Amino acid sequence: MRKWLRGRKTYLVGITAILAAVGGYAGGEIDVVGLVTAILAAAGGMSLRAGVG
Fold first, then answer.
1. Could you report the per-residue pLDDT of 13-51, keeping only the tens digit for each?
2. How many other β-carbons are positioned within 10 Å of the β-carbon of residue 29?
3. Is the distance from CB of 36 to CB of 46 less than 8 angstroms?
4. Is residue 40 within 8 Å of 2, Cβ to Cβ?
5. Which pLDDT score, from 0 to 100, does residue 50 have?
């Protein structure tokens, strides 16, 4: 399991963050600006991981 997760943990966390943001938007907890900010932050983290790796 650890071997499979190597290099994928950051992407799993990023995808989870995006899904949480979409859920927050669907539930009315955040607005569109918060949704876009959260998605861009998660995508930025995944891009940074791809650049380092």
1. 999 999 999 999 999 999 999 999 999 999 998 898 767
2. 11
3. no
4. no
5. 67
- The answer to the question of residue 48 being in a domain is yes
Q: Note whether 45 and 21 are within 8 A (CB).
A: no
Q: What is the pTM for the complete model shown?
A: 0.82
- Measured between its terminal Cα atoms, the distance across the chain in Å is 20
Angle at 35 between CA 47 and CA 23, to 5 degrees: 105
Identify the domain containing residue 26 by its residue range: 7-52
Q: What is the DSSP letter of 27?
A: T
The answer as to whether 1 is a domain residue is: no
Q: Is 2 part of any domain?
A: no
Domain count, the chain: 1
